[in-house]
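Supplementary material to the annual report.
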Amino acid sequence: MYVYRIMLLLVFGGYLLSPLLMSGWASPGVAWYRPFAIWGVLIALTLWLEQKRRLDER
Amino acid sequence: MTLSLSAVMLLGLGYLGLLFVGALAVERGWVPVRLSRHPAVYILALGVYASAWATYGSLELAGRVGFGYLAYYLGVAGAFLLAPVLLVPIQRLSRAYQLASLADLFAFRFRSRWVGSLVTLISLLAVLPLLALQVQTLGDTIFLMTGTGTPSLFALAFCVMIALFAIAFGARHARLHARHDTLLATIAVESLVKLAAMLVLGAYALFVVFDGPVDLQAWLDGPGRSAQAGIEQLDPTRWRTLLLLFFAAAFLMPHMFHVAFAETLSRRTLLQAAWALPLFLLLMAIPIPLILWGAQRLGEDGTGIGEAYYAFALSDAAWLQGTAFIAGLAAASGTMIIISLALSGMILNHLVLVALPPGKKLDLYRWLRWLRQGLIAAVVLGGWLFYRLVGVKHDLTTLGLVAFVGMAQCLPGMLALLYWPGANRKGMVSGLIVGSLIWLLGLWPPLLAAFPGLILLPPGLEGIDGQAPWYLVTLVSLTANILTLILVSLATHTSAGERAAAEACSVDAVIRPKRLPLIAANSEEFKQQLARALGENIAEREVDCALMDLSLSPRESRPYALRRLRDRIQANLSGRMGPSVAQDIVDRFLPYRRGDGMAATEDIHFVESRLEAYRTRLTGLARELDGLRRYHRRTLARLPVGLCAFGDDGELLMWNDALAALTGIDGDSVIGARRDNLPAPWAELLGRILTAPHSRLYKQPIELAGELRHLTLHKAELDAGEDGHGGKVVLIEDHSEMKWLEDELVHAARLASIGQLAAGVAHEIGNPVTGISSLAQNLRYDTDDPRILETASQIQQLTQRVSRIVASLVGFAHGGRHVSGHTLSAVSMADITDEALHLIHLARSGEDVAFENRCLAEPKVQGDAQRLLQVMVNLLGNARDASGAGDRVTIETEPTGDGLWVSVVDEGEGIDDSVRDHLFEPFTTTKPPGEGTGLGMALVYSIIAEHDGKIDIDSPPPGQAKGTRVRLWLPLNRQEVAHANEPDSDR
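Predicted assembly:
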């Protein structure tokens, strides 16, 4: 259940900070794939939390 | 115009034809079930979210607002990230009450068919632009590739194919809430196809148009910067609003609700989708900017074919154009199939069946199926018509945003449904109407007639005037919707039915159903009652289906089980006709009994079974309390004494393990039954204690499995406290063993009294025996006749023998101690055996048994001759009694270093194993009743122990097939001891 709180925090925090994602569009010096890399990290984090939740509920 | 019309039609219809073949393969079982039911199929089917917007609309949005297009993907990813707290509760409700659509869910929660109808209307209005968007992409791409003047007619051909597919594979069953493996597998394949096509297009842009990532980055940092000049960066508020719209779409859009909840798999799979669906969407999103930049590098600036279709500008190659077309067709067809299925169900349940109640139909299921199939076709063709009349005048972004803003009007209601039990139907309807009106007035006039929308900004928000209409309408409509919902809910009354439904829907609440009795007393009466509404055949099928779902017996009559049966029938009917109609039918024809003074108490057993299912969701204090509840529950269940509890209404609430073991009746089969419905003899026995004025019934005899048992029952009254849970608890102890022991004790006491009697008799016999002995002595002096002298001598010996026997009996009666006064002397076992044989022969029985005394005269043992004689008499008597005619009994001695073994070997029946362990215990005998006292071997043991000897029993003896060998070991030299070696009472 504590994992759910982490997820809630993650989503709410992501919602507030997400406008930063858009700033990199075609800006010089910013890799074009940066938003996707951040997104990929978030997916990995979710996968890790999902594993943790399953252990927590076992 | 790189392809001919026939080639494009062949490609598109060929693709859809292949889908038909694939679906047929799944349906016929040619595809292994483990594959078609794999969780990955379900997760890929959720990819239905990625409609033609994901393949074309996102390109258009990216061309206008840059990375702002990601909101479409990140919104839904956020919703799935919250799956445990947002989607799983919806899935739980949807599954428990067979709620196949958003309208079903709202109608169930707010106990109003009007809410269901309203949500259906809003969904229909919101989805039409989305359907038109799908059709428009088909028409536009056909035009782009072929240049034909009538792309809409060819788009219609695709729509007909899609409607046929949805009818063939999605509307076979009358029940909406059923998993359609074929359909899911098809949608999953479509997701794979569009993903593969998008990745191919992205890779083409990256590696063919550009020379890899480095070249792309160099272009973006250099010449590409000017091409991005037209990009408008979304400000944070607009971005967040867009994100919110797509977040809501993840579970409010009819097609998403249908795949996520109606085509339900396990909770675990839904949780797996929390990361797997965002991963799928990430892969779908990556090619979008690559295609956009690729087309820009090739010279496209948006004035030609429009950003949405830039994929077609990457190359004139037919295969690439075909890939871009198939990506869109796969996305659009999947979305249209599921939307048509979901929306047809909503229209059927909340518009058609509300206006035309089903009534008694000969074949209700077929009638429902036809209606659904007609509605599926109507929805798809409605989408095409909307595209023809309205869609063609607008771009994809406009159409899509109208749809998403419309569906978002259900978001406040959904959040209230899950998290605010105080919301009521008036608040919900008011909020929905206000929000929807703002949406209709703000976005639909420009959509339908190119009139400006009417957007009234509240005071204080004038500063945002001039922003995009979708943004203003979203902001104002949702704010008004939420405020109206809250204020009206707070200001108006909430009905009891709504409160109960609110508890059932609330995330934190456990359903607490009331324990009301039903008028129908068994499943047969259920069928009769339901037949009045549905007809006999359908009623029988529905009741049988519900009984099977719950694994209940057709003869079920337990009130608890009947309540569950009623709930299940309602849920199943809800799956076919929607919750409003189902509730009407069940409330009318399967009503609860009311007004007989019976208080409605909570269904504790049901609450407990729910708590078991919710265990992992409890936190903090609730989890601690649940832990305590489990501990107490376990204590009662494992109590080694039978326990059962009855509610105030006489319904059985608890039946613990010990009672199940005692009665042979499993708790699950009787919990929820009334006391008088329990199997015999328990109904009568428990009735006796429950109605008895006193709290105990002592040792009630009952027959269980052919065996007489004695049970003691204790009763305690449970006063209804603040929680209102009153009743009675009954403890049932099995006192059968204690009763047997008591009987044994009485028997032993009787034998002890015989011992005492024997002591008295001995005392009385002693005098006449002494007199006989004296007279025999005198006789010896009065005659010289050798015969008379011999007789007198034998009389004296026998009188002495009588005295010793009586003394031994008295000794045994005094706890096994022999009477003092005997002295130790050297005793020849050969002589003792002779004398014993002599005495044995006085008895009339056993005359045909041969005794053989092989004892050696030497060595002699130290002992009491009389008591050793008693031992030999007992052993030889037993041997004689065990032997048959012609058998032989052999007595022999064998000296060892410091002792002598004396063996008595017979050829009799031997000693039974069950007796052998108790052979030396008093009252143990193998002889028929009345022939043996069971004291002989106990006496032997006692005497041998006094002599510091030991006894071995072999039955049969080594080397013999039958018989018994008793071996005594006696020491040769022994000091007289003061009887310190008492017999081991434990033997």
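The interface with chain B takes residues 1-4, 7-8, 10-11, 14-15, 18-19, 21-26, 28-29, 31-33, 35-36, 39-40, 42-43, 46-47, 50, 53, 56-57 of chain A (CB under 8 Å).
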